[in-house]
Design brief:
- It is flat, with a radius of gyration of 22 Å.
- Helix 3 packs parallel to helix 12, helix 6 runs antiparallel to helix 7 and helix 8 runs antiparallel to helix 9.
- It is built from twelve helices and two strands.
- By secondary structure, the chain is mainly α.
């Protein structure tokens, strides 16, 4: 229950932090969105550890400029550790070919395992940087301006907003369960299936009620998210700098 409460608090803090006043926060949302996408593509397309370390240095420098706590930053980046470890272990088991990597004789599975872990960590860090420095409403407005289908943007917004609904319902159900079972410190495994099923049904019903209320009050994607920020020449110049830095890092680290 405490973990769910902390998750709700952290989600709220993230929204509050997204309206900060640092240089990174003041950048145009499109610049940050395109820059994040390009950085993720650059990270996923490389097999050079040196290049990934340079990317990591750049990402952590941006986090420092944006006044983001390194502790929270690293914690969010490690969320994908279980999945990356599962994939990495499969390479360790099935790929035993010996290769030379930067002059070191090592198993190819070890290299791939390490690359998967570092890439997953960096991609999640980039995504967290984008969310932590840009409000979701600003991103939605720019996506609508860029003619992204309103239905797709709506799904993104509703998914993000309904996380709070989901966590709140989970907290209520967890509290009710523990009150009925005072000897239990957590939800028992035998009750987990029923708990998850009821949680899904309650969340769907609650989210549908919220959406119906929004529609009754005149909610329209194309009318509400119209707060587009003008995209001047300085933003084009910033995008060119971002592309130049990414290309320079790739050329130097080849």
């Amino acid at each position: 229950m405490d973990r769910l409460l902390n998750a709700l608090i952290n989600m709220g803090d993230l929204d509050d932090f997204a309206i900060g006043d640092t240089f990174i926060h003041r950048l145009h949302p499109i610049v940050k969105l395109v820059g994040s996408i390009l950085m993720i593509i650059s990270i996923l397309s490389t097999y050079q550890m040196i290049e990934l370390l340079v990317d990591m240095f750049i990402i952590f420098m941006i986090a420092y400029i944006a006044h983001i706590s390194y502790r929270k930053f690293i914690k969010r980046g490690l969320i994908g550790l279980p999945l990356s470890l599962c994939l990495g272990l499969s390479f360790l088991i099935f790929n035993q070919q010996i290769v030379y990597y930067y002059g070191i004789r090592v198993s190819q599975g070890v290299i791939l395992c390490l690359l998967i872990f570092v890439k997953t960590f960096l991609c999640l860090c980039v995504a967290y940087l984008l969310i932590a420095t840009t409000s979701f409403d600003a991103l939605a407005s720019e996506l609508i301006y860029l003619k992204v289908p309103a239905m797709f943007v709506l799904q993104l917004i509703m998914t993000y907003r309904y996380i709070f609904v989901f966590l709140n319902e989970a907290q209520i159900m967890s509290k009710s369960y523990l009150l009925r079972s005072p000897k239990s410190k957590a939800i028992e495994l035998k009750d987990m299936g029923s708990f998850v099923g009821h949680l899904l049904i309650r969340s769907l019903n609650k989210s549908q009620s919220i959406y119906n209320c929004m529609k009754c009050r005149g909610f329209d994607m194309n009318k509400i998210y119209t707060n587009h920020q003008s995209f001047g020449l300085e933003n084009v110049f910033l995008l060119m700098i971002i592309v130049a830095v990414i290309v320079l890092v790739k050329v130097v680290c080849l």
